[in-house]
Design a protein that fits this description.
This is CPBP family intramembrane metalloprotease. It contains eleven helices and no strands. It is mainly α. The protein has one domain. The longest helix has 38 residues.
């Protein structure tokens, strides 16, 4: 299923008679701006983990997430004799390795969403591109969500919630796609995000349960801090450029 967006993008490119430019248009090849690419790879490893980890703290502060942020009982329990520091270091390494493996599947989505769709939406304005691509990406998950994936307690609301998390994560993936002029950092970030979502459970009260439409990065409390950051970045960008939604260099290259 993860390769259907790439297949759709290829089909449309062939219909547009741009099949020969498909690799370049979607940012698969060639790799450009080596320094930006390396910076993007580093951010792809760090930002998704930060998105996941901040959510339990915000959710606990609001009173929705069942967090144990004083004793970290569950974290201490699973870390055993190794201790939390070494345990988290091991988890970080596993997340990197799993993220690299996941990227081989995530590239199927990213070629469609960030490789093909994102550069064509940016000229309408970055806010529109973030919202529109996020909603499309979120609803694309609907068949799985309705079967109980990610939101087993309320799959109906889960479809809407999935759009929310796709908007938040998609904003970063779209930015990293434009910045690096490559789809590969976005695929890596996508893979790391999928591998790190389970970190949320380490901050929960032992034996507690949660509704993922409200808690974690999958729920609305997890989008508050990223949403503020996105809004500030868009506002500063609009002020500096004088024109909200300025065209990305990726789109300009496509038009040339």
């Amino acid at each position: 299923m993860m390769f259907t967006p790439a297949a759709a993008a290829l089909a449309v490119s062939l219909l547009e008679r741009r099949g020969s430019a498909f690799l370049r248009d979607t940012g698969i090849w060639p790799l450009k701006r080596s320094m930006r690419f390396l910076v993007s790879v580093l951010l792809a490893l760090l930002i998704p983990i930060a998105l996941v980890v901040q959510a339990p703290f915000i959710g606990t502060w609001i009173g929705v997430f069942p967090g144990d942020l004083q004793n970290f009982t569950l974290l201490n329990f699973v870390s055993g004799t190794k201790g939390p520091v070494l345990y988290l270091a091991d988890q970080a390494l596993l997340i990197v390795l799993a993220g690299l493996a996941n990227a081989l599947l995530a590239i199927g989505e990213e070629v469609g969403w960030r490789g093909w769709l994102w550069p064509r939406l940016v000229p309408t304005g970055r806010l529109v591109a973030i919202l529109f691509s996020g909603v499309i990406w979120g609803f694309w998950h609907a068949p799985l969500i309705l079967l109980g994936y990610n939101y087993p307690l309320s799959p109906g609301w889960g479809v809407i919630a999935m759009c929310g998390v796709c908007i938040v994560l998609g904003a970063f993936l779209g930015w990293i796609r434009s910045y690096s002029e490559s789809v590969w950092p976005a695929a890596l970030a996508h893979g790391v995000f999928n591998a790190s979502v389970g970190l949320t459970s380490l901050f929960m009260t032992l034996g507690a349960s949660m509704d993922s439409t409200e808690s974690s990065i999958l729920g609305w409390t997890g989008w508050i801090l990223p949403g503020v950051v996105i809004a500030v970045i868009l506002l500063v960008s609009a002020i500096r450029s004088g024109v909200p939604g300025s065209i990305s260099t990726v789109r300009q290259n496509l038009e040339n």
